[in-house]
Amino acid sequence: MNPIKWFKWSGEFVYFWGVSIPWRCVSAGLPAIILTSGLLVLTFLAYSDGGSWRRNLLTEQLNDAFETEDFETAELLIRRRIAEGDDSGEMVYKLAVARYQQDQKDEAIGLMRQLAELRQSDEAAMWLVKELYLGRKWTDLDPTGQTEFGRLLKLLSEERPSDLAIKQLYVDYLIASDRFDAAIPYLRELSASQPMRGLQAAALARRIGNEELAVRLANQTLERVDEMFREEPANPALALAVVQNQIFLERHADAIRNLNQAIPRMKTDEHRRVLQQAMGDTIAAWVTLIEQQKNETPMERLKVLKMLQVALEYAPNNPRVLTLVADQVLKTINHDDDKIQALRDALVAGTSPGISHFVRGTAALLDNDPDKATRHLTLAAEHLPNSAAIMNNLAVSIAQREGGDLEHALSLSEQAIAAVSQPSPYFYETRGQILFQMERYLDAIPDLERALPVDELAGKAHETLAVCYEKLDEPELASDHKAAAAKRRLVDAAQ
Fold this sequence. Notes:
By secondary structure, this protein is mostly helical. The protein is 78% helix and 0% strand. The protein contains 26 helices and no strands. It has helices at residues 3-20, 26-46, 53-67, 71-83, 89-101, 105-117, 122-133, 143-159, 164-176, 180-190, 197-207, 211-231, 236-248, 252-262, 269-292, 298-314, 319-331, 338-350, 353-366, 370-383, 388-400, 406-418, 425-437, 441-451, 455-471, 475-494. Helix 3 runs antiparallel to helix 4.
């Protein structure tokens, strides 16, 4: 039983096998030579290429199992490979895929996360991104999910630096998580193949207060897209790209001039309509900028009305233009300048029936005529059913009518709030007042408090809040709001 003797006997067997072959007589020794050569070749094939012949056979069987979606057999083969010592990231990844396809999802996700955390497989990180996060809204993810999503995208962007799809996903993640300064360098890289990403980077730079960088990025983007547009002057997408950069740089006159030249060059009616809508948006953006300067001279008011008249000629159904027209008409409704009155009336006549009824209904609301206001605003809502401003004002008029349907008014108010991404304090004040009338005092308070920063709404909001807190047995808070309401009335009287 001595193993040394076994080795000795084996060596003697091999030695005597070799010397027994008649090497000098080829014809007699040929069978033995062929057998020996065959054994050597088989040994080489079995133990070459980094693994045994059996391992290569298992690999082929494993590939066949995945191709035929026989995941049970695939798992069995993978576990054999792992038992033999092949616990590489690729093999564990395949095991996780096989387990996931057999509805062992928690175990599979755990394996994938382990591979990603140890950086053993970027395929595992990509799998987690696709299975757990792609197609889901950012707001639907809990903080843990948001953190993991970002970590996976960062890993992938480092492992696959030339993958533009990954880079775009990572940029979107950085923007969604308000990490604008980190997103800007990636956007600048993407702008090499997607020029308008440069304008997006400029917008983020402006949001973080770096105006110098914002202007520089916007100018660089404008140079690139303008050169491309000169090469393709009938391309509506490039025309819009040029205009968007000019609007960002507050070069509205240049943008309008470019659109005016580009519209006749378009080859189809659809392309012309797109640029006509862009003309309306450009004029609306310029009017908004003028309004922010709060210059209330008659000359500026006339200029704004004339600009809107041009905008209506190009884009008579543009929502932004119609909203500004309604706003300007209401602002000048008591203006005694003959030119302004004439232009205002022409604007109302030139708009759609919906906006005309909206203007008349809102004017009636300001004149404390809720019945007339409800009539016109109802007609306006039929023409423009998606207008948040119309729904809000209609809710106000219904609530002010004697015996008005407060439930219907509340429903309209909530629709108006849901219809816009950033509801106006006026919308919240409307809902707060309706809830107050319905004696839902606790529900009314948050909406009324949102109205306090607006001077025009603060006085009435304080008065209503004072009553709400009285009804809720909060005398100190009620007293504070009464005092604030009285102070607001003195300020208004002084003005």
